[in-house]
């Protein structure tokens, strides 16, 4: 078809859904206001972001819609195995391996803290407009015990649909706490060779715990240690070592009677 006077025809690549010899047909319509011709059949390439018909994205959804949703274990197993394989190809030892897994879980812990606090408030537990009221503002824990309770009774059920098996404090160091998990989910899908029997892939969970603590203002270092028994061969202890500044603040808040 001949092009209208003063207009150059554009060449378009072949369609991926048509035969090799077929091209996208383009029609032209005259612009009434400007007196120019514009293509109407060509797809617009100025914006790659697609919106649904309601013009709402995932960010417009209520956070409580997925409160009781569960992720497929097969999906988690596949993704986690890929994460472990990716880290395995880029490390030189067991400590480096666990450090990389810890760093992968740390950002997730920072984000989960805000979600936990939002859902633990009256504003987050309802979908009404009362979420804008000041009475429903989430408050971060100020003392160690509320923080550890948040980890064992809120974070664990959110991730694994069950609380942690136990929480203990070190008898020699008051700044060390231990969260015990007899059957960590991360250990169920990874086979560790004998030459790397000291490796704990649950370091990924330790990174999540460390991220939650740091995000709440309790600087610490969290690590995972294999302490398997005959009854619980995958038993893991997550050791949390809080910084001295956190312990000093804890003693000051205790003197002031703040809970």
TrEMBL record:
Q: Which domain of life is it from?
A: Eukaryota
Look up keyword Nucleus and say if it applies. no
Q: Where is the composition biased (Polar residues)?
A: 8-28
Q: Where are the compositionally biased (Low complexity) regions?
A: 29-48
Q: Which parts of the sequence are annotated with region: Disordered?
A: 1-48
Pfam families, alphabetically? TRAPP
Q: GO biological process annotations for this chain's record?
A: endoplasmic reticulum to Golgi vesicle-mediated transport
GO CC field: endoplasmic reticulum; TRAPPI protein complex; TRAPPII protein complex; TRAPPIII protein complex
User: What does the subunit section of this Swiss-Prot or TrEMBL entry state?
Assistant: Part of the multisubunit TRAPP (transport protein particle) complex.
Q: Which family does it belong to?
A: Belongs to the TRAPP small subunits family. BET3 subfamily.
This chain's protein is named: Trafficking protein particle complex subunit
Species in which this protein is naturally found: Vermiconidia calcicola
Taxonomy of origin reads: Eukaryota, Fungi, Dikarya, Ascomycota, Pezizomycotina
Gene name, please?
trs31
